């Protein structure tokens, strides 16, 4: 009887795993196929693979409509695979690299997040927009885009407009971040900065992790490494900001414990662990190269999935003041970080 129960439990687990695989497979396969096509085009036409993946993905946006069969896999690719890929990027960065950058990125990130949120609150008041909306948009811009928007929304006072504002913020920061991924690398090259400074600018200004990685590595590997590190410093600011907002608004919807579990980015732990392991030099070169290659493929796949989810027309359906506010916050953050990197060069 015991063996029979154990066999049934084993069969149930296998069935659950198979069901999850079949649910995710269509979307993941499509994203991986687009990633392969983008890689082929990049190798033959010497253009950034991330840009090809994004643009090709946007051409398949119709697959995300009406929650089709591919949608679960696309969501999985753009979120879970992305986080895994970014976590694996830690193998490319060592503690000596971080120390070489000095304290400037840390100070810049803390100041940038604080000033951008303050600017958003003040601008919302001047533009006669709800203060909570200013906090929501500026927090998303300052920290990590859509993920920050969802986390901050969970601790803001509940209102009839909160869900609509959250959806707009997610659409807005994703659209602006996608635009920045393409435009910022072009603009920053006009200032003739070194790769480290360019990486600091890209990592300190672009909203979402995926686009930071895409923009950074489209310039160079060093730029990508610095951009990723700077961006993860901003991601690490999510937890203290959300906890402070929860205390400020005395939200009864979330306790300190579930804020930690819902908002702390677990991939950051993987990233830090690999930085430490890589710094110790205990990984064989073959393993390091395999992890780098796996991370690169996962990133391109995630970018392709992100492109499939991007709907540029959606942003036109919201009010003009809301659009103006989030654009102003984005430009404020970009101007602040640009001033810092230019001042550092002097």
Secondary structure layout:
Elements: H1 2-45, H2 49-59, H3 71-88, H4 95-101, H5 104-126, H6 131-142, H7 146-153, H8 162-188, H9 195-205, H10 209-219, H11 221-236, H12 238-249, H13 256-263, H14 266-280, H15 285-309, H16 320-345
Helix pairs in contact: 1-2, 1-3, 1-15, 2-15, 3-14, 3-15, 5-6, 5-16, 6-7, 6-8, 6-16, 7-8, 8-10, 8-16, 9-10, 9-11, 9-16, 10-11, 10-15, 12-13
Detailed description of the structure:
- There is one protein chain.
- Helix 1 (2-45) packs across helix 15 and helix 7 runs antiparallel to helix 8 (162-188).
- This protein has helices at residues 2-45, 49-59, 71-88, 95-101, 104-126, 131-142, 146-153, 162-188, 195-205, 209-219, 221-236, 238-249, 256-263, 266-280, 285-309, 320-345.
- It starts with a helix and ends with a helix.
- The protein has one domain.
- Helices cover 79% and strands 0% of the residues.
- Mean pLDDT is 81; it is low at 251-263.
Uncertain residue ranges: 251-263
How many angstroms does the end-to-end distance come to?
Answer: 78 Å
As a percent range, the share of strand residues is under 5%
The major β-sheet equals: none
Q: What's the number of extended β-strand segments?
A: 0
What is the number of domains? 1
* Helix-strand string: HHHHHHHHHHHHHHHH
Helix content: over 70%
The best one-word shape is globular
Count of alpha and pi helical runs: 16
Radius of gyration: 21 Å
Give me the secondary-structure category: mainly alpha
Average pLDDT rating: 81
Give the gist of this structure:
The chain has helices at 2-45, 49-59, 71-88, 95-101, 104-126, 131-142, 146-153, 162-188, 195-205, 209-219, 221-236, 238-249, 256-263, 266-280, 285-309, 320-345.
């Amino acid at each position: 009887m015991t063996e029979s129960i154990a066999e049934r439990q084993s069969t149930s687990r296998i069935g659950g795993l198979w069901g999850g695989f079949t649910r995710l497979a269509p979307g993941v396969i499509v994203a991986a196929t687009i990633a392969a096509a983008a890689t082929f085009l990049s190798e033959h036409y010497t253009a950034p693979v991330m840009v090809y993946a994004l643009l090709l993905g946007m051409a398949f946006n119709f697959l995300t409509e009406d929650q089709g069969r591919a949608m679960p896999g696309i969501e999985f690719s753009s979120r879970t695979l992305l986080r895994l890929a970014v976590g694996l990027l830690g193998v490319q960065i060592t503690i000596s690299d971080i120390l070489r950058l000095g304290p400037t990125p840390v100070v810049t990130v803390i100041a940038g997040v604080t000033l951008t949120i303050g600017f958003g609150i003040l601008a919302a008041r001047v533009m006669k927009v709800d203060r909570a909306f200013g906090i929501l948009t500026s927090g998303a811009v300052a920290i990590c885009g859509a993920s920050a928007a969802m986390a901050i929304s969970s601790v803001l006072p509940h209102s009839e407009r909160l869900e609509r504002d959250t959806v707009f913020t997610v659409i807005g920061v994703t659209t602006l971040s996608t635009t920045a991924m393409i435009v910022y690398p072009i603009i920053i090259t006009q200032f003739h900065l070194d790769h480290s400074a360019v990486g600091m600018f890209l990592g300190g200004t672009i909203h979402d992790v995926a686009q930071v990685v895409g923009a950074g590595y489209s310039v160079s590997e060093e730029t990508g490494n610095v951009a990723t590190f700077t961006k993860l410093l901003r991601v690490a600011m999510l937890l203290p900001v959300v906890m402070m907002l929860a205390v400020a608004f005395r939200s009864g919807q979330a306790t300190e414990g579930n804020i930690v579990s819902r908002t702390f980015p677990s991939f950051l732990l993987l990233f830090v662990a690999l930085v430490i392991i890589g710094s110790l030099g205990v990984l064989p070169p073959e393993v390091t190269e395999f992890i780098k290659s796996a991370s690169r493929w996962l990133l391109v796949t995630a970018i392709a999935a992100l492109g499939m989810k991007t709907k540029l027309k959606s942003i036109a359906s919201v009010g003009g003041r809301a659009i103006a506010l989030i654009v102003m916050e984005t430009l404020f953050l970009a101007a602040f970080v640009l001033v810092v990197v230019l001042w550092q060069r002097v």
